[in-house]
Design brief:
The complex is a heterodimer of chains A (236) and B (565).
Chain A (H helix, E strand, L loop, with lengths): L2 H14 L60 H14 L14 H9 L4 H25 L8 H10 L10 H19 L2 H7 L16 H13 L9
Chain B lengths: L1 E2 L8 E4 L3 H12 L4 E4 L7 H4 L40 E2 L29 H4 L1 H5 L9 H15 L27 H12 L5 E2 L41 H6 L4 E4 L2 E8 L5 E8 L5 E5 L2 E4 L3 H9 L23 E8 L19 E3 L4 H5 L9 E6 L16 H10 L3 E8 L8 E9 L5 E6 L4 H20 L3 E2 L6 H4 L36 E3 L14 H21 L4
Parallel strand pairs in B: 1-9, 2-3, 2-10, 3-6, 4-16, 10-18
Antiparallel strand pairs in B: 5-12, 7-8, 8-9, 11-14, 11-17, 12-13, 13-14, 15-16
The chains are: A mainly alpha (236), B alpha/beta (565).
Chain lengths: 236, 565
């Protein structure tokens, strides 16, 4: 896959509907160079991740009126529990919507990393290695697996994995967290609860001409145009 | 080898059921001619198979594209795609070419861009304007009446353009365009303030009902992604319009899973018919007809002519141009996060699916004065709607801050997608691979493809223009800082491949005349994009339909007058 290919697929995704299938660009995912020194001694990145057992995709001509996931899920119980925990940290419950772990987005992550397609298999390697790294790093720091850390200890780890300019030693763990975060965003905001959280309005049949923006939306636009000194060019 | 049951004598065999084949079947059957349509793909019924309403979360992987379904699980394209099992194509060393092959009734019209600008006067005479490539043997005035009719026939919405080389449609051709969305109005204001014009796009989606006794179609109801297919018929696709209308005449028989392998010649200088392989059984059949229409898509039409004839250089190739002059549109995407759009008030932004407005090419005068470092033009298609923000638009945060960022940035990114003209060059062509056959034993195509400096400079110019619009909006540009060669799509990726059996006024330099009739065999008519003498940046489907209608009426006249005995 070349970058241009990814860019195009990304466009097709936005061009269709909700930007559900957006593709992680390879560029700029992790800033390299000196970066912020890690707040702890970083353990080695796990080298070996067992490949996916042979399984089949849904093929080129599946029944579109009856969608099915034909491949088995492959997370161990411990991996799924860690993912659910991470889901409730990355996208936590608040007044607008439940946490991603509670909502079951972990099942989507499992479906994703268990799919026999190249992009998903790249992500499988990243996610499974990342989960073992989290456990190894937790043991090195606190002598327990990630799941047994205190909330504050887990938070310190996640903070280190969301640095804007990570040190080279943290490049792979940060890339893992980038990927996992984006998978959670996709899995969460494509569900009815996630769309409601974003205030999404659509997917409703409207007979007759498209009504266009309402008064409130137009008022916001008018103010923005004024701010940008574009107010005399408001009409198509 | 078996011969198809002679249940009725056939006047015309039509290879392919997409835009060109659908139009040929419609026009020829209305003229009273008996047609047999051969489609390589399977039968397809949008009414039974399209899932318009299911949320993406019902699909595996939230509907994301995979090698099995490259444009998403619910995408209309079935049983085909970038690769087809047992039906490979090959590439010359150093070439990266993508060949999109749906294998279904209706072909590419079941999933397409629906953006249908007319070519202008300059587009038909590019050599006269800049000395590159060749002129078409026909001009805008020859095609204009067919544009008028096709727009009314397939249903196009849009508005006036009023710009150089962007012809307007006469009154009565277009349905009213939809109102623009907030990001579209903002882009319009920013672009126009920089001297870049923005206009209502011409889109093949109905905004008014189109009654018909056989294939009634409804106005768009402003919901569901068009690329899944449209069971109410608002989006033009041949499977809900031209094909049922042609069938209703009683003059059309359609055979699916019929992969045409070659044109069979008669005893004289005329074609007797075609040979096809039943993709289910592998059995070969021959059909005979008074005329052969090739509308299999640029690549397949060229392939089957190259695989026909006796001398190994292909049929209808005395010019040597068959397979040469391959072009695709250039493609590149630009995107920005616009802080001023963050947290904007929500409303329904679905509209008629894709863009409501676009940016037509606006620099013909500067180009004529020699102020640009590339020939020919490009346009921008516009996107930016509520939904999940793209990954590049989200900060690297977790917890409440991430939820906040998604809410704020939903609907706050905009995109400009470039489509540009490629000038034919000697390094871009297709030919028969001497060593590779598909599972039916049919020799496969081998592609060679290269962009020239014109296309590279054009994309670099487009990026500067797009970024100037983004900066005018105080946007954060989300594009990687890479040389233009590395942000361009691969050849074939925009699915506008054209030109490999071009038309011309001189039989030594072209494969077909201005009506798609091959110079060498006068009862073989080409009607798809293979005949294009150039590949303007304007999306080709409307012109394919107009030229197919024009060629079909000419063919019908020849068949009914006895000129083709």
């Amino acid at each position: 896959m070349t970058i241009s290919r990814r860019t195009t697929l990304q466009w097709f995704a936005t061009a269709t509907t909700l930007s559900l299938a957006s593709w992680t660009p390879a560029f700029g995912a992790v800033a390299t160079g000196a970066g912020v020194p890690p707040p702890f001694d970083v353990v080695d990145w796990p080298v070996n991740v067992a490949p996916l057992p042979p399984t089949k995709g849904y093929g080129r001509d599946p029944d579109l009126t009856d969608p099915q996931v034909p491949w088995p899920l492959t997370f161990t119980k411990a991996q799924r529990a860690a993912i659910d925990l991470l889901g409730d940290m990355i996208l936590p419950a608040d007044a607008a919507s439940p946490g991603a772990g509670k909502l079951g987005v972990g099942a989507f992550i499992d479906e994703w990393i268990s799919a026999p397609y190249p992009r998903q298999q790249d992500d499988r390697t990243t996610v499974i290695a990342g989960l073992s790294w989290l456990d190894a790093q937790s043991r090195a720091l606190h002598r327990t697996p990630f799941a047994a850390l205190t909330t504050a200890q887990r938070g310190t780890l996640l903070d280190a994995l969301t640095s804007d300019a990570p040190a080279p030693a943290l490049a792979r763990p940060v890339a893992f967290m980038d990927r996992l975060r984006n998978l959670f965003v996709l899995g969460f905001y494509s569900l009815p609860e996630g769309k409601a959280d974003m205030g999404f309005i659509g997917d409703q049949v409207i007979e007759g001409a498209y009504p266009g923006p309402d008064d409130k939306a137009l008022a916001h636009l008018t103010a923005l145009m004024k701010e940008l000194k574009l107010d005399d060019k408001a009409r198509v | 080898m078996t011969f198809a049951a002679a249940d009725a004598a056939i006047d015309v065999v039509i290879v392919g059921s997409g835009a060109a084949g659908g139009m040929a079947a419609y026009s020829l059957t209305k003229a009273g001619l008996r047609c047999l349509m051969l489609e390589a793909g399977r039968n397809y019924d949008p009414q039974a198979e399209v899932n318009m309403f299911a949320p993406e979360s019902d699909a595996p992987l939230r509907g994301s594209g995979t090698p099995d379904k490259p444009f998403g699980y619910f995408d209309a394209t079935v049983d085909g795609g970038w690769q087809i099992e047992g039906e490979p194509y090959t590439m010359q060393e150093g070439t990266d070419f993508r060949w999109w092959r749906p294998r279904m009734l209706g072909g590419r019209t079941n999933h397409w861009g629906r953006h249908v600008p007319r070519f202008g006067a300059y587009d038909f005479k590019p050599f006269s304007r800049d000395g590159l490539g060749v002129d078409w043997p026909i001009g805008y005035d020859d095609v204009a009446p067919f544009y008028d009719r096709v727009e009314r026939m397939i249903g196009v919405n849009g508005g006036p353009i009023g710009l150089e080389n962007h012809p307007d449609s006469p009154a009565g051709c277009l349905m009213p365009p939809p109102k623009p969305r907030v990001p579209e109005m903002l882009i319009t204001a920013a672009a126009e303030s920089l001297g870049i014009p923005v206009r209502a796009a011409h889109t093949a989606v109905l905004t008014r009902d189109m009654p018909d006794p056989v294939a009634p179609r409804s106005a768009c109801f402003n919901a569901t992604p068009c690329t899944r297919g449209c069971t109410i018929g608002a989006m033009f696709q041949t499977t809900t319009s031209l094909l049922p209308m042609a069938k209703a005449t009683g003059k059309l028989r359609v055979v699916t899973d019929a992969m045409v392998s070659r044109v069979v010649m008669g005893s004289g200088t005329r074609a007797a018919g075609v040979e096809y392989v039943d993709r289910k059984t592998g059995q070969r059949h021959q059909v005979t007809a008074r005329a052969v229409v090739l509308a299999a898509g640029t690549g397949e039409t060229t392939r089957l002519l190259l695989n026909s004839g006796k001398d190994g250089r292909g049929l209808a190739n005395s010019s040597g141009e068959l397979g040469r002059n391959l072009t695709d549109s250039t493609g590149a995407s630009f995107r920005a996060y616009i802080p001023g759009l963050a947290n904007r008030p929500r409303y329904n932004e679905d509209g008629i699916g894709g863009q409501h407005i676009y940016i037509p090419f606006w620099l013909y005068e500067q180009q004529k004065r020699g102020e640009l470092d590339f020939a020919r033009g490009y346009h921008f298609e516009i996107n930016g709607r509520f939904g999940i923000p793209p990954e590049t638009a989200l900060p690297r945060v977790w917890g409440p801050a991430l939820k906040q960022a998604v809410r704020a940035r939903s609907g706050a990114t905009i995109g400009l997608v470039l489509r540009g003209e490629m000038i034919p060059n000697k390094d871009s062509y297709c030919e028969i691979d001497p060593g590779v056959k598909d599972r039916f034993g049919i020799p496969v195509l081998r592609f060679a493809f290269k962009w020239s400096q014109h296309e590279v400079n054009q994309v670099a110019h487009g990026r500067r223009a797009a970024h100037s619009v983004f900066r005018r909006l105080n946007g954060t540009i989300l594009d990687p800082d890479l040389p233009p060669e590395r942000i361009m799509t691969a050849g074939g990726e925009i699915i506008h491949e054209l030109g490999t059996a071009r038309m011309g006024a001189d039989k030594r330099m072209s494969v077909v005349d201005g009506y798609g009739q091959t110079w060498d065999v006068d009862n073989i008519i080409l009607m798809d994009g293979a005949t294009f003498a150039s590949g303007p940046h304007k999306n080709p489907t409307l012109t394919i339909l107009a030229l197919a209608l024009r060629a079909s009426e000419r063919l019908a006249a020849r068949l009914t007058s006895g000129a083709l005995a």
